[in-house]
Specification:
The chain has 404 residues and is of the alpha/beta class. It is 49% helix and 15% strand. The protein has a 6-stranded parallel sheet with strand order 2-1-3-4-5-6, with helices on both faces. β11, α16 and β12 form a beta-alpha-beta unit.
Amino acid sequence: MRKANEGIKDNAPIRVLHLIDRITGYGTTKLLWDIVRLTPSDKVKHLVVTFSPNKGKWIYADLLQEKGTYGQVPKRRILKILDRWDMTWFLVRYMSALWHVGKALIWFRPDIINIHTNYVLTLGLPLKIILRRPVVHLVPSLFSQMVDDGKAWVPKLLAKFHTSFDCFFTAASRCRDELLSVGIPDSKIIPLRGLLDLEEINRILHKRQQFHKSIREQYHLPSDALIALSVGRLDSSKGHAYALEALPDLLRLFPKLHWLLVGNGNQLSELEDRAKKLGIYDHVHLVGYQEELLPYYAAATVYLRTMIFEETNLSTYKAMAMGIPIVGFDTGCETDLLKKVGHGILVPNKSVAGLSAGIAQILTLPDHGRELGGRGLEFCQANLDIRLGIEDITAVYKKLRDGN
């Protein structure tokens, strides 16, 4: 009978409760969505609980709801009023999240708790202590980014309570180094092999010429315009201001160059004002958040990786997979893929002059760096399919559920 019960357990889907601060349109939420949609439903069942209510503005909330894995209602008017008082709003969110987690424990009965971001660490850790369920953490960013974002308490919490976690998933080698630096044993750190949906990327690659034309038409650019692309939140850590400052010198050399910045955030007005003062506003296109990003990559000539902390993020992986040459800041990581693969140029961190020179070097090549970018495309096709990462995650879930 015991062996029969073990067989049932082995074959039953693993129930995973995902805790995330909020649904956004960016990397961490996109990765969560990919995990949910690409994991075979007969192997894993998912439920998502957020610390903050859905604002009703991001596509991933709708997609998760359609999958039946997320059911928290969008932010109501009364909650928007409470949002004016920080401490009251924090307590309301905390009590709401506790309520939803409590319901999930009763009817969903999770085998694994997967923590994705920061505030939900304070929910997941007590659950580990009280319920003795396996808890894993998909580390969302570098410690340096957390500190820059006013969350210096997160690395301290991980340093103190890492023994309560069963494993840490990481998407970047530098993140692994930071986890090791606070005492987390290497045996608990699981680097994910892939982060890219190559099936989706290959569909867009086959339509590259179509998007090369349509994106230029959409923004009223010349058909032979050169496009420097940046993708990411309008936040100082993403270094967009350095790209903006590099443009005046570049435009003197390449008058048909246009910068497309995809994303939104608190730097919007600052970047717009600075572009006007520099006299280059007609060549700067702050296009806001876009649900479909890959057409922009298909249309781009060069990608600007201006993050001042990260070596590579999901947006940069997409540029790499689309075969675009990359000019990136050197953030000091020896494992940076730009060094390993050679699909672009590294320049000194925060250097406007270096960035400008790197972009000019690529744009003066006869093929505008297409051969360089092709190295990244080949590497991604061979190594970075997200289905490999899903296999890693699912295998860990199963080992933890089965007590191995």
